[in-house]
Amino acid sequence: MVSFDAAFRQTLAELFAWRRDVRRFRPDPVDESLLRACLDLATLSPSVGNSQPWRFVRVSDPARRARVIASFERCNAQAAAGYEAERREAYVRLKLAGLRDAPIHLAVFCDEDTATGHGLGRATMPEMLRYSVVTAIQTFWLAARAQGLGVGWVSILEPDMVCETLAVPCAWHLVSYLCVGYPVEEHADPELVRHGWQARLGTGMPLIER
């Protein structure tokens, strides 16, 4: 049985605290073996029925990247228009993606037609497949952070357009679009806190009794 000591637990807590959504990347390339090591750790994530439905797609083609960036810009402008007055001004000042700078783009999909796992655990909750993909994303994120890499999750996109642009099977559902690379800066506090968008609610997890 593996035993984890207090020093390891403290380091793990620090890793969780330093897992930040990165939007500012250096252009330095990421070694292929380093990326692969992080992806290999992501495959250790739990999944419903051991279905392993995650599908990671690296987006390297400049034309495809340009279409994703254009989608972000359209969606970002629409989102800004949904706010009023000071909140809109605050939104516009935020940097919400590192799409132009990050050396690596990863689109992460859920294969909703996967036969792996034989449907175990998802007959009444089919969304568990997508939740399983989220666990793989978080595992990849922490693995990358431990290697000094930054990860940014871009959600201000048109999912159908991304699927079409990347020519993935129609049963693949976009869960996340990740920017990956070495961060320009390191901060212990989340960027949205630092720029006054939303304070953290605290570290104590509310536990509801029934």
TrEMBL record:
InterPro entries for this protein: BluB, Nitroreductase, Nitroreductase-like, Nitroreductase/BluB
Source organism (scientific name): Methylobacterium goesingense
Keywords carried by this UniProt record: Oxidoreductase
MF terms in GO: 5,6-dimethylbenzimidazole synthase activity
EC number of this enzyme: 1.13.11.79
Record Gene3D superfamilies: NADH Oxidase (3.40.109.10)
Sequence ranges assigned to domain Nitroreductase in this UniProt record: 17-182
Name of this protein: 5,6-dimethylbenzimidazole synthase
